[in-house]
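anyone seen this seq b4? input:
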Amino acid sequence: MQKFIRLFLCLYICLILISCVSDKDSQTDTFPETENSSEEKLLSRKEIIQLIERTITDTETEAVQKGVIQEKPKTEKASQKEKIESALNFPLPEVKSTREIADFIEKNYTDKLEIPFESYSGSLELPDRELLPFGALVLESYRLAYPDKKMKVYEKEGDWCIELENMVFAWADGRLLPFNKRVEAENYGKQIIYPNTGKPRNPKAYTQEEIAELMKKGTKAALAAEKPVDSTFTQFLLQTNDRIVTERNIRSMTFLGHRLNVHKMVLPFFEKIDSEIKALAKTDKEVAKFVADLSEVGCYNWRTIDGTAGRRSYHSYGLAIDIAVKGNKKPTYWEWVRTWNSKWMLVPQSSLWLPPEPVIKIFEKYGFVWGGTWDEYDTMHFEYRPELAVLAYLYMADEE
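predicted toks r here
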C-alpha cells in the first residue's frame, strides 16, 4: 500500500504541471538556451526534479503573497495533502517544456505522503492536454499502477511497448499484444481500457448515434462480428494464466459478514474496505441499512462476461465483486434489462439499484471501478482497475 501512496504524489504533481502547458499542439519540446549551446537539450533527471520542486515552491510562495493560502509558522507543519490541494487550485508559473513531465512521472517513490486513491479517481475537472500518444499513456498507467512489477515502457520498431519480466507487449492500434503478434492486430478486438473519471453514466447526454450503437450490444449480429481480445498481458500481469494458476492465488476472507474468495493481490484492500464500511455504518443510516440488507457477495468465479463473445470477466481473476441486497426489485445489469427493454441504455440512473455513494467512494479509494459508471451498466459490480484512474490523470480526458 505504501508504494501506491507514494505514487499518488507523483501523479498530483504531474497534474499540476500539465495544467500549465500552454501549447498542446507542439510536437517537439524545446529547452531554454544554455551558455554553451543554443541547440535543444534534454534535461538530466536531477535537473528535472530540481525544476519541478522549484516550480512547486514558487507556486506556494506566490499563492501566499496573493492571499490565496496563508503562510504557516515554521514550527507548524501543514499536512502534505493540504499543500497539494492548495497548489491545485492556484495557477502555476509557465513551464517551458513538457518533456520533464513525462520523465518526472517515473520519479522514485521516496515521498512519504498519505494521499488516498480517491484523490485521483475523478473528483477533479481535468483539462484536455496531450503529453504522449494515447497508447504510450495506457502503458504508463499500467506501469504506475503496479510499481512492484517494475515494468518498462519504451518505443521499439515503431510501436510503444511495455516490458514485464522480460516479456515485451506492444500497443498495436488499441490492442495490447505480445510483441510478435502485433502484425496480426486486425485479428483481435481492441483493449477495454479508458480514463476512469468516476462519473456515473448520464443517459440524457447520449446522441442518437450513440443510442444506435448501444442498441447493437449483445445482439447475435454484434456477437458474431466481435473479435477476441487477447488477454495475455492481463493474465501475465495478474498471474492468472489459467484456472489452476489463478486458484493458487485465491484467498478466502470474511467481507461484511459474508464469505469471499479474492485474489491475494487485493486481499489487503478488501480488508480495509470492510473495516471502513463497518466504521461508517455506525454513523450513517443509509450505509448501516446497506450492510444489514446484504444478502450475497461474490468475487472469484471462473467465467466469461454475459453479452460478449467470450471475454473473460474480472471475476475470473478474483478481482471483482458483485453485491446483492435483500428485497431489491430495481434493475442492476444492462444485459438482464435488454431481454425485455430494447431501450435499456435510456433507463435513468435513479431507476437502477445503487449502492450508497460513501460505499462507492470507499471502493474507489482503493483502486476499484464501479460498474455504475459504464454505459453497459452493472451497478452491483466493482472491479480492481487502478490503471484506469491513473490513465485519467495521464490522459487528461476532458469530459465536458
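The mean pLDDT is 75. The first strand starts at residue 152 and ends at 156. kinda curious what u guys think
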